[in-house]
Amino acid sequence: MKTVLGKVAALAAAMTFAATANAEVSELRLMSQFGIGYMQLTVMKAEKLVEKNLARAGLPATKVTWATLGAGAAANDALLSGSLHMAAGGTGPAFILWDRTRANLDVRGIAALASMPNMLVTRDPRIQNIKDFTEKDRIAMAGAGSSVQTIYLQMAVAKEFGQENFRKLNPLMVNLPHPEGLRAMLSGSGEIRSQFTSPPFQNTALDQGAKVVLNSYDIMGGPNTFLMVWTTSKFRNENPKSYGAIVAALKEATDLINTDKRRAAEMYVAEGGGKENVDRILALMSDPQVRYTLAPERVLRYAEFMYTIGTLKNKPASWKDLFFPDVHDLAGS
Q: pTM score, two decimals?
């Protein structure tokens, strides 16, 4: 009898261990940032697309929470600490974490979000191109030092002044989230008269008299991925259903945006408390240079530059090295 009871107890313990080992997270912690480049995440949150796909996967009780952060570096910190399961931001911070976690957490991209031009804009009439910046000038930039705009500027500087001088304008960078950087530049009351930013902030600046000094598409030779989402292999492997729900929600959101941009614009404006104008956001989204696609575009060239200047210690052989297999069937580059 004792032997039978012992076997039953052992079996129950094994089943409990297996259930625990196979259990997925009870709370899925996601994030977004400021700007229309994160439109898929806005739609996912508004339409509860992650919750819908979790329910389809048999996880209807999983709680989904969203945080709003101001830069990719902050997203990386949150992902590493375990307070987030998915980070979102520019390609620069994502590839830096890919590089530094290859031997352990193995961070890679889930998918791209958007390709859109980023612009260095200024209200200083003296500045016509990057050669006109002096040590007294300041450039507002979200995530200065590690952001996607940082790398764009370093690429332009390397081309203009030689690769050994790629950090020449780094001392001019002031780390401010896009909305704060815009306010600082437009106020005219401080030392910040330029900003390297993205839609819709650069468009607001241009509407109020700023001019373009540099366009990221000119630097990259055409459209390229500006924003993406990423996570750890550990999370992906241990939570396949939750991860799958994120991927499915991203696909649904992307399809919705490309099918009905006005509806997406309305969600964006509602998310921001109605401070923006729907028609204006729709016009920005409809710019032929703006693409909402999960396919990474020109990311390999970007990562190769980061490797060349020493920001990355590992050189990707393909764009697929930087992303999980879920998007490898897309026309990336």
A: 0.84
